[in-house]
Amino acid sequence: MTEAGWGDAASPEINWRTSAALKNVPRGDSELAEVTSLEGAVRAWLALDPAHRDGAVLTPEHALLIDGVLMDEVHGAGISALAERLPGAALATSDASPELDDAG
Predict the structure, then answer these.
(1) Beta strands in 1-104 (DSSP E)
(2) Which of 20, 33, 94, 101 could make an S-S bridge to 38, C-beta 3.0–4.6 Å?
(3) What are the structural domain ranges in the chain?
């Protein structure tokens, strides 16, 4: 009989497609919350300048278990920890950049 593997109990696999709102960030003349996927919200947070990152609040549809802490609202360092776990995060920080060939 085989044993089921559920990943790291302190930080189970993240469902990046779940809904999330990124609040307290400027959107034109107002500070409306943007509702998108968790992945989209974290990537939008990465695009913010440091002052707006500090004030941003990410609210996932369901609480997240990260490093043994259950979070239903995520701020600064917590969003940064999520960013490190983004799909393709290692590629995004790589020094290698793709080069276009003659076709495109």
Answers:
(1) 19-23, 34-37, 57-60, 64-66, 69-71
(2) 20
(3) 19-86
3 state DSSP class of 9? coil
- Give strand pairing partners of 27: 30
pLDDT tens per residue, range 20-75 = 999 988 776 666 677 899 999 999 999 999 989 999 999 999 999 888 889 999 99
Paired tokens of 84: 């490190």
Q: Tokens at residue 17, please?
A: 């497609």
CB atoms within 10 A of CB 26: 12
pTM over 0.90: no
Strand intervals (E) in 24-84: 34-37, 57-60, 64-66, 69-71
Q: What's the rounded Cα separation, in Å, for the pair 45 and 83?
A: 9
| Residue 5 or residue 102, greater confidence | 102
